[in-house]
Design a protein that fits this description.
By secondary structure, the chain is of the alpha/beta class. It has one domain: Phenylalanine Hydroxylase (Orthogonal Bundle), CATH 1.10.800. The chain is globular. Bound molecules: phenylalanine and fe (iii) ion. Phenylalanine binds next to helix 6 and helix 7. InterPro entries: ArAA_hydroxylase, ArAA_hydroxylase_Fe/CU_BS, ArAA_hydroxylase_sf, Aro-AA_hydroxylase_C_sf, Aromatic-AA_hydroxylase_C, Phe-4-hydroxylase_mono. Keywords: Iron, Metal-binding, Monooxygenase, Oxidoreductase, Phenylalanine catabolism.
Length: 280
C-alpha cells in the first residue's frame, strides 16, 4: 500500500527498505526467509565485536539484559524475543521496513510496540551505516526495554510525541530522544557509562563517548537539551549525562507545553557549542 515518504535528517538518499510491504501503521512481517547466510554472519560478527566492548563502557542494566535478545549467532526472530520481552515489561517488537514518519512512530511507542528495522547492513557497511538497520535497532535499543523504568520512559516519550506533534514541537522533543535514547550517558557507581542505542551499536563511538577528552559532557537539563541541534553523521560533540533512569523518568513527567512555549524563539545551541558555565 502507498505510504508517505519518510523524511530523515539531512540525507537526500531515499530509505532503502521496501515500504510496499508495510501496512497503514508501517509495520510488516519480519521477512525471516529473506535473510541469507551472509546476513546471519554479519549479525554474528557485529554482535561479537560489540558485546566484547561493553564491560566498563555500557550501563549495567544494558549488559545484564543483553542475553535476553537470545541468539547471537543468527538474527533473532522477533516472535521469540517477544516471549521474553512481553513477560518482562509488556513491550513487544514489531518489524518495519526502516525509518517511519513521526506520528506512526509515536503511536507505536505509546502502545508499547517498538519498531525494529528487519534488514541488515551489507558487509561494506560493517563499521558505519547511515540509517538504522536491525543490528542498531535490536542490539542498541531492545536490551533496555527489559528495564521497567526505561521501558516506561520510552512509552511516555511516545505519548509526549503525539502531543508535541499537535503543538508543532516535534523538533524540540526529538532532540531529547537523540540525547537520551540514542546518545545518552549515565553516571553509575563504577563510573560513566553509555545507555544510548546509537552509542551502544557503534564500535567507534562507544569508547569515544565514555573516554575521549574531546566531547563535552553536560548534566541532562531539559531546556538545554531541547535547544541543542545534533549531527547525524559524526560522533557527538556534546553528550548529556543522567544519574539514573528514574531521574530521566521523573524529569519528563511534567506537561511540556509551557516549556515548548517558553523555548520557541529562543536561540539554539550548535551541536558542538561549549557551555563552560553550566554546572549540575
Ligand atoms: N511529559 C512530556 C509532555 O508532557 C512528554 C515526554 C515524556 C517527553 C517523556 C519526553 C519524554 O509533553
Ligand atoms: Fe535508534
Amino acid at each position: 500500500m502507498a505510504v508517505e515518504p519518510v523524511v530523515y535528517g539531512a540525507s537526500e538518499r531515499p530509505p532503502r527498505g521496501d515500504y510496499a510491504r508495510a501496512g497503514a501503521d508501517y509495520t510488516c512481517a519480519q521477512n525471516y526467509a529473506a535473510y541469507t547466510e551472509a546476513d546471519h554472519d554479519t549479525y554474528r560478527r557485529l554482535y561479537e565485536r560489540q558485546s566484547r566492548l561493553l564491560p566498563g563502557l555500557a550501563s549495567q542494566a544494558f549488559i545484564d539484559a543483553l542475553p535476553s535478545l537470545g541468539e547471537r549467532d543468527r538474527i533473532p526472530r522477533f516472535e521469540e524475543v517477544n516471549e521474553r520481552l512481553y513477560q518482562a515489561t509488556r513491550w513487544e517488537l514489531v518489524a518495519v521496513p526502516g525509518l517511519i514518519p513521526e506520528v506512526p512512530f509515536f503511536t507505536l511507542l505509546a502502545n508499547r510496540k517498538f519498531p525494529v528495522t528487519d534488514w541488515i547492513r551489507t558487509p561494506e557497511e560493517f563499521d558505519y551505516i547511515v540509517e538504522p538497520d536491525i543490528f542498531h535497532d535490536l542490539f542498541g535499543h531492545v536490551p533496555l526495554l527489559f528495564n521497567p523504568v526505561f521501558a516506561d520512559y520510552v512509552q511516555r516519550y511516545g505519548q509526549g510525541g503525539l502531543k508535541a506533534h499537535g503543538l508543532g514541537a516535534c523538533e524540540m522533543l526529538s532532540r531529547l530522544y537523540w540525547y537520551t535514547i540514542e546518545f545518552g550517558l549515565i553516571r553509575e557507581s563504577e563510573g560513566l557509562r553509555a545507555y544510548g542505542a546509537g552509542i551502544l551499536s557503534s564500535s567507534g563511538e562507544l569508547p569515544y563517548s565514555v573516554q575521549s577528552p574531546e566531547p563535552q559532557r553536560l548534566p541532562l537539563q531539559l531546556a538545554r537539551t531541547m535547544r541543542t541541534r545534533y549531527k547525524i553523521d559524526t560522533f557527538q560533540q556534546t553528550y548529556f549525562v543522567i544519574d539514573s533512569f528514574q531521574q530521566l523518568f521523573d524529569m519528563t513527567a511534567a506537561d511540556f507545553s509551557p516549556i515548548y512555549q517558553a523555548l520557541k524563539g529562543q536561540p539554539e545551541f550548535a551541536a558542538n557549542e561549549r557551555e563552560e558555565a553550566l554546572t549540575a
